[in-house]
Amino acid sequence: MSDISKPLPRQVADAYVDDLIALDPVLGTYLGVKESARALPDYSPEGRQAVADLARRTLGALADAEQLPGADSDAERRCGRLLRERLTAELAVHAAQEDLRTVSNLSGPAHSVREVFALSPTETEEDWADLAERLRGVPKAFEGYRASLELGLAKGLLGSPRPTATFVEQLTEWAGDGVGWFEELVAPGPEALRGELDAAGRAATAAVAALRDWMRDVYAPAVEGAPDAVGRERYALWSRAYNGTDLDLDEAYAYGWSEYHRLLAEMKEEAQKVLPGAATPWKALAWLDEHGTHVEGVEEVRDWLQSVMDEAVDALDGTHFELAERVRKVESRIAPPGGAAAPYYTAPSEDFSRPGITWLPTMGETRFPVYDLVTTWYHEGVPGHHLQLAQWTHVADRLSRYQASVGQVSANCEGWALYAERLMDELGFLPDAERRLGYLDAQMMRSTRVIVDIGMHLGLEIPADSPFHPGERWTVELAQEFFGMHSGRPADFVDSEITRYLSIPGQAIGYKLGERAWLLGRDNARKAHGASFDLKAWHMAALSQGSLGLDDLVDELSRL
Q: How far apart are CA 543 and CA 417, in angstroms?
């Protein structure tokens, strides 16, 4: 632990960030720490234990800090509450040895390694030298990850078969056919480092292929026949980690169904405006896939998505938000191939030298329906993830470094982003039936996530009033069928989504449950203030309080 004399909770939290960066240089790169640029984390059992030991020491330091004068201020109290909740949840996951069976199509150690190279600076020869050194660490990082999975196999802690199969396919794509992704990455590097970069790229590709071969030949056969679903106990553990609360899972499941029925009625009404006589809303969406507004071309869609965010910034700043100049900047990029199908966002570095970035996986497509993208970029970009996470970074000096970055609670962030979609509908930014049906389809997807994520992992019964297999118990196959029936997205996206839910249980439900928390907090604040309620002021206060779990979010939002 860093040497701080009589630290208060925010100082304890920030010392934890400093020490965690030393263990996790990928985190350092996300935060823009130059010193992290040459290293990768230790994903071995020993490396994971070091992270857990740091969390325990930090909780001890926090307990001492909370006894000091000044620790009961709102700023210190809020930070201390977040730090305790997050570290306690993370330690519970570690104690259950979940690190020993982490296999995902979206968020495992191997994905973190690859994604950090997409964010690594390459502007100078020194940057490229740092990248080459980090590339040389890829084999060791993958060996550490493999060691964790090997220990998991020895202990009978098995990953899910379906995410394993998908991960093998992803590794195969990263390894390439002759030239791998890491070798392509270094191709634009300076001639002075050509030999060094090429050698490091080849070594990284060889490490990808070696991990792929082991996953395919050893790990996949070992987990064959293991359940894809995690069961109630493990699900509750992960749900706490992603949502910052001990949810009543049966109530959450029922809420997902209530939102499903509400949204289905709205979708049917909107679908008739798009395609009169459409048998289902998804028939109307299929019609839009062929005949609706499209953007042609990969670079063209990147430019168009940039314009969507730029227009949103100009329209919302000064009216519903008050944005600092550096928060106004956000970039649209095309995601590297070989990842999951869902778009995503990366926050700006702490000094904003790297802006917030939205990423679109094209999945080989070159023609993009507008109805499917507008709401998504309100979610990923503005006023969604970008405004929240960039604002946290902007006010980090008033919060703590921890609250603005490492202490992020998934359901808080995803709930805000879904609230942002709804806000844009409320403000009239979806003026035609085409875009509004796309928005409702996105909302429906988040409701069906609650249903199938909880339903298939817990093996719950499908309600009697469901139009789909009433009275049966959820299976992975039924979940995929149901999700596909209630989504305007292509089959490969649906397949990727179900695999995602199997590999990160409890994360997907945070969108709707987080949105519910944000809406309730806003409603409570509006009732408290009456006619004097100022939505712009509430937005900025809400976005400037840093991360909170759902246990605390409604309470804090209601006070604003």
A: 12
Angstrom distance (rounded) from CA 220 to CA 234 = 21
Domain end, chosen from 180, 203, 228, is at 228
Q: What's the structural domain count of the chain?
A: 2
322: left (phi over 0), alpha (psi -120 to 50) or beta: beta
Structural domain includes residue 542: no
**Parallel, antiparallel, or unpaired for β 367-369 and 294-296?**
antiparallel
Confidence of residue 5 (pLDDT cuts 50, 70, 90): low
| For range 470-487, the mean pLDDT | 94
In whole angstroms, give the CA distance from residue 383 to residue 470: 38
Contacts of 36 (CB under 8 A, 6+ apart): 21, 25, 26, 27, 28, 29
- pLDDT tens digits, one per residue of 374-395: 999 999 999 999 999 999 999 9
Structure tokens at 39: 């290293």
Residue with tokens 């196959």: 477
Strand ranges (DSSP E) for 362-450?
367-369
Output the CA angle 71-74-75, nearest 5 degrees: 75
Which stretches of 180-248 are assigned E, i.e. beta strand? none
